[in-house]
Specification:
alpha/beta; 808 residues; globular; single chain; Rossmann fold; six-stranded parallel sheet; binds pyridoxal-5'-phosphate; ten-stranded mixed sheet; 33 helices
């Protein structure tokens, strides 16, 4: 492709699509035209990729996830195809501003946070590493809600991201499959075997929409297949409608379509909602049927299935893949239980994402059984056989068997099903995998030690550095060459330049320009003017008790108290930036958002502190907003209660953009510390060991902190004495959680150590050269947190897949 050719093709495409000339074009028409052109171009590579996969009969992996937090795709696709500059110049000649065209694309926000974004980074790495890996998910009509802040409170608005269509997807109506819910199972007997006949079920049509995922500067185009729920024509048009039961027919249609209507906005919390269970089964049943159909069509023998297909489940959400694969093998393919079980476990692998008990999925048996009667029978049988094995191994140890059973206490325990029915269980950072083995899943680890492993999370350096921070990316390329973009281990070459005055200067200038850009966005969005030479101290992530935004707030209150007492206090000016959504039903998290706003109101208009502090909350945290914030960040707040954050990936995005981590020894922070060394990170607080010991043995009393530390007493009093504007009793719940509910997340316990850590940040930053050296070191060491490294480890260690080279 070159500029002249692009321009010609673009104008032709525009006229054929819109029946008018470019002069009359709306920006949306231009967006659609460009999107269609990109997609058409990718289609050739897509066809070639699929053909190579079939011809070479290489093993494929399917990544099952209820969430894919993709963000925007157009600029990514332009960059990856090497078209960005060509289009920019051609559009310049047509007086079209590419930036404003790109901004028209809505974020594909089909995820809550880290788990969904991880799935998106993995798709990026599959394609960029030329690995045959595909995503399977749900095409939610409404993505993660839009957050508006009204009077300091979060208000949720629907996100109709498909309202103008989606240029990337292709509806594959001919590949639709049927998914069955409810009904009953009748047993029949044929030549000594029992046959299970599912009848009187409700049938839902699953229609796939495929989107191409192109690799970085290569010819691989993999597939993200998202399923949409529709009524079968048969049910809707003929049976119900013809009986004249119009209203019921419409109601039925609505009910069916509700399966792919919305993404549940709960992060780290499971709600026992039947629609969610329906979504989970819908995803796995549709995906497995289509995988097996395709496999058999290409002549594959089921005996070889696990050698040709790997299926990965992102958390337990798609764990019904295990009994559903068993159902297909046994009921439809007439396989015996033992063989079906062997192939199923060899095919499926599982990632655990959390040890928070409130996030571990379990479903009441009665609800499960009514919705999925045949699947329940299979789960029940899996449980019977597993408990029998346990009984052989631990005779009479009912207690232990009860703790490990798949079905127990009236519930189906999804994590237990995942461990029993898969060949690999991985945590997402070293410490998290260790806690799984030694605590949460210790019984299972004792039984299946070979199944457990670690795969530390990663992020794609192409979106989170090349795309979002182009000037830093250019500096890196100028310094060490372009190879880092598909081989992130190359970034380590920057270690040779940590003392290079020119590089330091450039890193400083680039960060400063990114801060200017963010300051402008902040002013546009909030009318708050921030000092671009202040330290940009950033905490952006879901709002949650364990992530401890409240600890950040208490520190800001303390700093403010010190400044009020002494306006000449020797501290560098700071801008505290927050962003993040709360689950709509999570009261404490919503109050935290209000608290940040109340504090911001107080501090931002207090002239007496001479603009040394500013507090900003940016609404509607999303991939696109994140891409604007990370490049401007200097301090990365990773302050979760130790043991609670399985890995974190925001921490990696900050690091790759040169921010210094201020964090606890939790999740991947520990590996970041190991990578950069203690002198290039600021660590504070309790260790996971301390926290787990307190939970186990007790011995922590929040009131002791209150009585021992006058700063804490003062701040907590200020939460409830009207000190914060417009908030009389508003923060009583925050106060009560800290004192009367004994501070579940050890906020007060870690307070003093956190304040000290902030003071160290202040000192480090005041030595510019020192700080820049730390910053360059963080960038240089961030290569190991590339999702390319993560995916390579999954590929060789779990899935046993290899790259497939696609010719031009
Ligand atoms: C990276 C990312 C997250 C995860 O952030 P953590 O700090 O790891 O919780 C959540 N949301 C978005 C939009 C992200 O880009």
């Amino acid at each position: 492709m070159n500029k002249g050719l692009f321009k010609q093709l673009f104008l032709e495409k525009f006229e054929t699509m819109h029946g008018q000339t470019i002069e009359e074009a709306s920006p949306m028409d231009i967006y659609m035209t460009l999107g269609t052109m990109i997609r058409d171009y990718m289609s050739r590579k897509w066809i070639a990729t699929n053909k190579a996969y079939v011809d070479q009969e290489k093993k494929q992996v399917y990544y099952f996830s209820m969430e894919f937090l993709l963000g925007k795709m157009m600029e990514r696709n332009l960059l990856y195809l090497g078209w960005k500059e060509i289009v920019e110049e051609a559009f310049g000649e047509l007086a079209v501003d590419l930036e404003s065209i790109l901004s028209l694309e809505p974020d594909a926000g089909l995820g809550n946070g880290g788990l969904g974004r991880l799935a998106a980074c993995f798709l990026d790495s599959f394609a960029s590493l030329q690995l045959p890996g595909h995503g399977c998910g749900i095409r939610y009509k409404y993505g993660f809600f839009d957050q508006k802040i009204v009077d300091g409170y979060q208000v949720e608005l629907p996100d109709p991201w498909l309202k103008n269509g989606n240029v990337w997807e292709i509806r594959k109506a001919d590949k639709a499959v049927e998914v069955r819910f409810g009904g009953n199972v009748r047993l029949d007997h044929h030549d000594n075997t029992t046959i299970f006949i599912h009848e009187n079920y409700d049938s839902v049509l699953a229609v796939p929409y495929d989107s191409p995922i192109v690799g970085f500067r290569n010819n691989t185009v993999n597939t993200l297949r998202l399923w949409s729920a529709e009524t079968t024509m048969r049910d809707f048009d003929f049976s119900t409608f013809n009986r004249g039961d119009y209203l019921n027919a419409v109601k039925y249609k609505h009910e069916v379509e509700s399966i792919s209507q919305i993404l549940y906005p709960d992060d780290q919390h499971q709600e026992g909602r039947i629609l969610r269970l329906k979504q989970q089964y819908f995803l796995v049943s549709a995906s497995l049927q289509s995988i097996i159909h395709r496999y058999k069509k290409k002549g594959g023998s089921l005996d070889e299935f696990s050698h040709k297909i790997a299926i990965h489940i992102n958390d337990t959400h798609p764990v019904l893949a295990i009994p559903e694969l068993m159902r297909i093998f046994i009921d439809e393919e007439e396989m015996g239980w033992d063989q079906a079980w062997q192939i199923t476990t060899e095919t499926i692998s599982y990632t655990n994402h959390t040890i928070l008990p409130e996030a571990l999925e379990k479903w009441p048996i009665d609800l499960f059984q009514i919705l999925l009667p045949r699947i329940y029978m299979i789960v029940h049988e899996i449980n019977e056989r597993f408990c029998h094995e346990l009984w052989q191994r631990y005779p009479n140890n009912w207690d232990k068997i009860g703790q490990m059973a798949v079905v127990a206490d009236g519930y189906v325990h999804m994590a237990h099903l995942a461990v029993v029915g898969s060949h690999s269980i991985n945590g997402v950072a070293e410490i998290h995998s260790e806690i799984l083995k030694k605590q949460v899943m210790r019984h299972f680890h004792e039984l299946f030690p070979h199944k457990f492993n670690n795969k530390t999370n990663g992020i794609t350096p192409r979106r989170w550095l090349l795309k979002s921070n182009p000037s830093l990316a250019q500096l890196i390329t100028d310094t060490i060459g372009p190879a880092w973009r598909n081989d992130s281990s190359e970034l380590i070459q920057l270690m040779k330049h940590t003392d290079d005055a020119y590089i330091r200067d450039q890193v400083f200038t680039i960060k400063h320009n990114n801060k200017l850009r963010l300051a402008k966005i902040i002013e546009e969005k909030t009318s708050i003017k921030v000092d671009p030479s202040s330290i940009f101290d950033v905490q952006i992530k879901r709002i949650h008790g364990y992530k401890r935004q409240v600890l950040n707030v208490l520190h800001i209150m303390d700093l403010y108290n010190r400044l009020r007492e002494n306006p000449d206090l020797n501290i560098l000016p700071r801008t505290f930036v927050f962003a993040g959504k709360s689950a709509p039903s999570y009261y404490q998290a919503k109050q935290t958002i209000k608290l940040i706003h109340s504090l911001a109101d107080l501090i931002n208009k207090d002239a007496s502190i001479k603009n040394k502090l500013k507090v900003v909350f940016l609404e509607n945290y999303s991939v696109s907003l994140a891409e604007k914030i990370f490049p401007a960040a200097e301090v990365s707040e990773q302050i979760s209660t130790a043991s609670k954050e399985a890995s974190g990936t925001g921490n990696m995005k900050f690091m790759m953009n040169g921010a210094i981590t201020l964090g606890t020894l939790d999740g991947a922070n520990i590996e970041i510390k190991d990578a950069v060394g203690e002198e290039n990170i600021v660590i504070f607080g309790l260790t996971a060991h301390d926290v787990l010991a307190y939970y186990r043995d007790g011995g922590y009393n929040a009131w002791d902190m209150y009585h021992q530390d006058p700063r804490i007493k003062m701040i907590l009093t200020q939460l409830i004495n009207g000190f914060l504007p417009g908030a009389q009793d508003e923060f009583r719940s925050v106060y009560d959680a800290l004192l009367y509910q004994n501070d579940e997340y050890f906020v007060l316990k870690d307070f003093s150590s956190y304040v000290d850590a902030h003071n160290r940040v202040n000192t480090l930053y005041s030595n510019r050269n020192q700080w820049l050296k730390m910053s360059i070191c963080n960038i240089a060491q961030s290569g190991r947190f590339s999702s390319d490294r993560t995916i390579s480890e999954y590929a060789s260690g779990i899935w046993k897949i290899e790259p497939v080279y696609i010719a031009e």
